[in-house]
Structures are given as structure tokens and as C-alpha cells.
Amino acid sequence: VSLYSGRVYSLLTRFLGQHPSREDFVQEVFLRVVRARDRYEPNARFTTWLYRIVFNLSVNETQRASGRYQLSLDQPTGDEGQGRIEIEDMRDPDPTAAMQSGDVIHAVRRAIAALPENQRMAVVLAKFDDMPYVEIAKVLDSSEKAIKSLVHRARETLRAELAPFLEEDLL
Questions:
Q1: Which CATH number fits domain 2-64: 3.40.250.10, 1.10.1740.10, 3.40.440.10, 1.25.40.10?
Q2: CATH topology of domain 93-165
Q3: Distance between CA atoms of 111 and 40, rounded to whole angstroms?
Q4: pLDDT tens column, 43-90
Q5: Which of 62, 98, 121, 133 shows its CA 20 to 30 Å from the CA of 29?
Q6: Closest to 61 measured CA to CA, from 11, 107, 105, 108
Q7: What are the residue ranges of helices labelled H in 91-139?
Q8: What are phi and psi of 83, to 5 degrees?
Q9: How far apart are CA 91 and CA 71, in angstroms?
Q10: Does residue 77 contact residue 85 with C-beta atoms inside 8 Å?
Q11: Distance between alpha carbon 98 and the CA centroid of its chain, in Å?
Q12: What is the pTM of this model?
């Protein structure tokens, strides 16, 4: 568990964003691993199987929450209800101001989160986890050609979305 929990947490963060239940989902992933251990094929890579479980859980949660999680503005937060909720302005910032404030990473995360689910999953596995397309195809239950297409479309969308931040072709 300790060997893979960091990877699972990282994937869940990339798939679901800053979801408040990510740590619970990490535990749920490993519970599903234990429950489904008799279905694991020893000749297959364990990480492919594990990532498939993470993917399925992410898809289920995304569908359950309709793509977003709920935050009650009526409920107090913090210690004994004295905290305040800071709500970030999610409008597109001026690119120059974003660069100066170090907000480029935030813009990249927002752009990735805005991708269609299948593109987001494919690009996260390909570019952040350096997973080969063949393995991604197994995780996402798709063909290698379809994965290449998803990653290409995701890169094009990200390139267009992040154009104000890019001085050179980084994607």
C-alpha cells in the first residue's frame, strides 16, 4: 500500500482536482484492490490494473457529482465554526499578471481539469505518469490508436487554452 499510495493520491488529484475526499478515495482504491484480488491476472502489470481501479473510481465520482463537488456556503468552516470560506475568482486572469503572480501552474491545472474526461485521463497518464500508450489503452479500455488521438486532441486544446502563457512550444 505504501509503495503505491502516493501514486494513487497523485492520480486522483489529477483526475478529480482538489476534491475534499481524495484521501478517502485512496483508501477506497485499496479496498477495491483487496476485494478484486482474485480477478488480477499475474501476467499483467499490477500498475495497469491499479490505475484501472483509480480510473473507474474517478469516473464514478465524476458522474456522481456531475463533474463538481458541493460546498455549502451555509455551513461554517474552521475551528468551532469561526472560519471563513475564501472563494477564488476563477475568471481568466490577465496572462501578464498571472505570470507575475506565479499562477501559471494554476492555469495549467484549470486547463487540464476543463478537458473532457477521457482526454484528461489519457493526457494525465501519458504526460504526468509517462505511461506508454499501450498501457493507457488497457487502463482506459480503449485502443492504442484512440489513446493517441485523445492525447493529441488534449494537447491541441491545452495549447490553445494556454497560448497566452507559452513563449515557446512546451506541450
A1: 1.10.1740.10
A2: Arc Repressor Mutant, subunit A (1.10.10)
A3: 34
A4: 888 988 898 899 888 888 877 775 444 444 444 444 444 444 444 444
A5: 133
A6: 11
A7: 95-101, 104-114, 117-123, 133-139
A8: -75, 170
A9: 19
A10: yes
A11: 22
A12: 0.60
